[in-house]
Amino acid sequence: MIVARRRSIALLAVAAFLLLPAPARPAVTVPEPEPPLTSAPPADPNQLVPPESTLTRVGDQAPAFKVKTLAGDVVDVGALQGKPLVVNFWATWCGPCQVELPELERLVWQKYRGRGLGLVAIARAQSEAEIGGWVKQHKLTLPFAADPRNAFYSKYATQGIPRTYLIGADGRILFQSVGYSPDDLARIRVLVGRELARTGAP
């Protein structure tokens, strides 16, 4: 009788233990895989741009300027406040630009804006009136600005668009390219992710 009672108590104890909720496990953050490249990056990152039309180099302090976006916000390249910035020079008549901008919107702006990345697409030699309709027609949300007199573009290059720059949180150029290629966009994404991680962005 005593043995049977002890056996019943033991079975009840086992059942109660099995019904206890499992201890909470700490959340594990899995790093996002870097986008694949179809070609190896050049040994010298400055090989991606022709030197005869480029006024900057990777590693240089980015030429400072302030530009007002179509939405009325001011982007100040000289005061990034510890956050990386992508600067793209484009035009409404530029075919490669029209391919690249939606990709910048989808793969860079929408993906990293919540983590602190800044971005501005500046229309070379065009006014706000000239680009406003184009922006509405294409329903893009990334910040756009106009550079009707090439005041900003002329600090970076003498010719050629699209041109895209990634400026690090310290104000130095981490990447620059001219023309559009998926590999260049993938490289930007890799570097943006690394720079945000380096600066402790969530």
Give the arrangement of secondary structure elements.
Layout: H1 2-19, E1 66-68, E2 74-76, E3 85-90, H2 95-112, E4 118-124, H3 128-138, E5 144-147, E6 163-167, E7 173-178, H4 182-198
Parallel strand pairs: 3-4, 4-5
Antiparallel strand pairs: 1-2, 3-6, 6-7
The CATH superfamily turns out to be Glutaredoxin
Structural class: alpha/beta
**How many helical stretches?**
4
Weakly predicted, low-confidence segments: 25-31
Shape: globular
What is the C-level CATH assignment?
Alpha Beta
Tally the beta strands.
7
Strand neighbour order, sheet with most strands: 5-4-3-6-7
How much helical structure, as a percent, in the residues? 25-40%
What does the largest sheet look like? 5 strands, mixed
Strand percent estimate: 15-25%
Secondary-structure element pattern, one letter each? HEEEHEHEEEH
Overall number of structural domains: 1
Q: What would your notes on this structure say?
A:
This protein starts with a helix and ends with a helix. With 202 residues, the protein is of the alpha/beta class. It has a five-stranded mixed β-sheet. The protein has helices at 2-19, 95-112, 128-138, 182-198; strands spanning 66-68, 74-76, 85-90, 118-124, 144-147, 163-167, 173-178. β1 (66-68) and β2 form a beta hairpin. The chain is globular and about 40 Å long. 32% of the residues lie in helices and 17% in strands.
